[in-house]
Predict the 3D structure of the following.
Amino acid sequence: MDNMMSASIGTLAKALAQAQAELSPAVKNSTNPHLKNRYADIAAVYEAIREVLPKYGLSVAQMILPADGKAHVRTILMHESGEWLASECVLPPDRAGGPQGMGSAITYARRYSLSAMVGVVSEEDDDGEAAQGKNRQRSASVPKQQAPQTESSNPDAMTPAQSKMLMAYLTKRHGNDRTAYLAELSSFFGREVKSSRELTKADVSDFLDAVNSGRETAQWRL
């Protein structure tokens, strides 16, 4: 991760600014089976940039690089001038999900790394708020008299105490890096976790038990 950009990026920066002025949000074409919310998968993100980036001499490459027993997702934004800009996301080794679990984590990291690199907007960053410990004001379009969803409406949802402990651990470990902490959860559960809110009481209990029992030295941890 030492070299993250070319010696100069002036031409690239100008081209990216022009491209971003024409980019549209990625279409939310998939549904989270747990939260039932819509989100843009990686194919939708690529579709959003497929025609605009080449127009300004830009292209993107993503590579999976093994290092120190971990998978690194490296995203490179390139300009026809030879200038380039890179980012890298380190994924924790898979605990139990095997290739499928790691594949889900890699797909998640690719999607968010690509969106962040080119500035494509697709979905609300709810977990980013949770990691910072902030409760931001929601849209004024939501009627004040509408009662918020309570825990009783979903008896399997994690408890407030579990949520507090989970986010305290993830924030201590990853700071505000949403991609990194969701990648760790995806690796642990062997499926793509798009939001901590989709975890059940049992899920969070298993995860916290693993941390508290000393299994943080197991292969799923960084």
Remarks:
- The beta strands are 30-31, 38-39, 58-67, 70-79, 84-91.
- The domain at 10-118 is CATH 3.30.160 (Double Stranded RNA Binding Domain).
- The helical segments are 10-20, 42-49, 52-55, 98-118, 126-132, 160-174, 178-189, 201-212.
